[in-house]
Amino acid sequence: MPRAAGHDVAIGVSGACKSFRIPREATHTLKERALHPLRRRGFDEFTALRDVSFGVRRGEFFGVVGRNGSGKSTLLKCLAGIYGLDRGRILVDGRMSTFIELGVGFNPDLAARDNVIMNGIMLGLTAREAQARYDEIIDFAELRDYQELKLKNYSSGMYVRLAFSVAIQVEADILLIDEVLAVGDASFQQKCFDIFNDMRDAGRTVLFVTHDMGSVTRLCDRALLLEHGDVVLIDEPDAVANRYLELNFAREQVGIEEAEGPVLEVPALSAAPIRARRAWIEDEAGELVTACIQGQRYVFVTSVELLAELDEPAFTILFLNEHHHDMLVATTAFDRDGAAHYRAGARVDVAVAFDPLFRPGRYTCTLIVGHPGIGQPELTRCENVLSFVISGPYATGGLTDLPHEISLRGTHRRAEQAIPPA
Questions:
Q1: Distance (Å, rounded) from C-alpha 57 to C-alpha 62?
Q2: Residue 73 and residue 194 in one domain
């Protein structure tokens, strides 16, 4: 593979294009092809990469993210030389190792030792090096108790852990890694993180494909976002993670266009049906959005029509997470100065402005209209009037990510050898 120009560039990709021909009618047997040699078979063309260009600096940890079908794995296989480009150039400076199909070349009828040695040799180690590193490999994979077991009796997780443990032994300047953090349990994944941190500290160049935005922000120096084979963004990890989450979760705005919703009949204690007609989100500039970035200011608006006369109604908006937990309750129930009498046919826009500090995920809004005061019966409830996504690069595990400061207090000094009393 040609070497990249410039001393600081390890990987250079310029105008990369790759398409595949997909037959409309598959031929499954040789007999079908022999009996119908002149049958015309149409093809559809699928474009996996469109004019993709980027550069990876030497010693950089570079992330590639995108939804399923965005072209991430195709790009990695083009870089590895598995696929050839239709157009464009790929330039590489350094010895490359690929973590794409872990375990390729393993023999399921052999035990771990034989597979480790053979696979290590295939990856570039000498037989002596592979044998010398066997204990380190088997211990890293946490398979010491299963080393005499044939690989066909391994679970999928055990199989991939062994393959990953062999692959990291290869000495290479550039590593292409495809979703390997999905292997193993949480403790093994932490070991993978530690290995990647060691690689970065050693100045090795890593191109890392993943769906895990936490890994991107934790490990990567920069990242590339692909969508349908096109480059959407090359930027800092936080910016790319936010854009990825917007693409992954955003959908058509609920009720942006004026639409006739079902008339929601209220309980018998009131004869005032109410209809939620529109719902939308505005950013600080007043533009309509379908996804929100954690911590920025937005206005959530629900427009309702009162189909009967109503005196001093209280409007409440519930913000609920995917588990239907109430994250925020905004209500006019205590606003006696704003109470009013509404005639039939009146329209009211209920607007809630705040900085959503919820953890990243999907949320919905529910509208409740009732009498003023706590404990009063509801007149009507409109479920899921609005659906939206909160995106952010970090998810600490809490329901919210409130601004806070954390510090360590106490005595900070190196441990000293205790001197026994005289």
A1: 9
A2: yes
